[in-house]
Every structure is written in structure tokens, then in C-alpha cells.
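1st attempt posting a full record on here, be nice pls
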Amino acid sequence: MKKFLTTALFSFLNFVLPAQMCPSPTAQMDLDINNVRARILNGGDLWNDTLLQTPHYEVPIGSGKNAMYAGSFWIGGMDAANQILVAAQQYRQQGANDYWPGPISKDPTSGTISVSNNVCNDFDLLFPITKNEVLSFISGGPATNNINNWPGNGNVPNFQLPYLAPFLISITMDSMILSLEIIPTSIFPVVIQ
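the predicted structure (as C-alpha cells):
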């Protein structure tokens, strides 16, 4: 049986910028799959309702039992000066947020990185899409609204990257070193067979 992996964009890119540059993201939705209902948010956190402070990782669906209260993305690395940089989400305590929705802009002359409230508000969404929509489109079917509205290309005159998504992610392990290569593909989500 062929195994398909559909890549999805949660529409946030993270760079080291002051958290107050954008309002806290609010978009959230539930994934209902394999008898699990899991809440996802576009602010780097997962599986809870940030307003009600309640868990949303229900297994099985309809049981009222939640296997986890919350989770989040923690991404770290080292810069050129060997300084450790980490972006992490911890229950959005005291309004702290290392993630925000939407692309950043980088001025090619000054190198200044910025993001605007308008961009954050425009991308304070989640972009759901199904495997069937993508397979139908790849096979010559019509583009659905989800495909037409997929945020694949940046606003280059505003110094955003030309390709925001999707990306094919290639992970290799060599001598205990994990390498991650992110390759822009096209303007619609990728299905890997």
C-alpha cells in the first residue's frame, strides 16, 4: 500500500524579532483524524484552547478524555557567532510569543528584518487542505478554493521571499549529524509517494 504524506503549512515563520511586533495569533482549528481530535493553533502551540485554558487532544473522539494538555514547537540552533538561539512557546505566559503568523520582510539594502501588524492579521488563519484536493488537482482536476487561496508566494515588492510554501523537506542523518534541506517546490501542496 502506498503511503502518502501531504505537507501542510501552518503559516508561521519565525525569526528573532521582538514579540510585540504583532498581536498574538488567534487562529485555531481541530484536526479530526484516526479517532483523535487535536486542536492546532498558528502561534506555535498545540492541543489546548488558550482562551479557556482547556485541553484539546481527545482520544477517542467523543470520550471527553484528553491524552495531553498542551504542546508546542521548540526550535533551536546556533548562529554564525555560535550563539544559541531558541524559539519556544510556553502557554503564552504574560503575552510572550516567539511565533506569529505570516512572512517576514528583509530589506536587501539595510538587512533590516521586519513584520507588520497588517501582515500578521492577514495571515492569522490556518489553511486546511485535503489529500484528495491535491491529488485531484495534480491529476488535472479543477483547483479548489483551498488551492487557489494557498499562501504559496510572497509579496516580493514588500521584500518577502518569493516562495513561502510549500516546501519539500529532506532530512538525512550522516555520522550522527542531522541535516535538513528545505526546497521550494511549486505553488500548491506536495504529495510524496
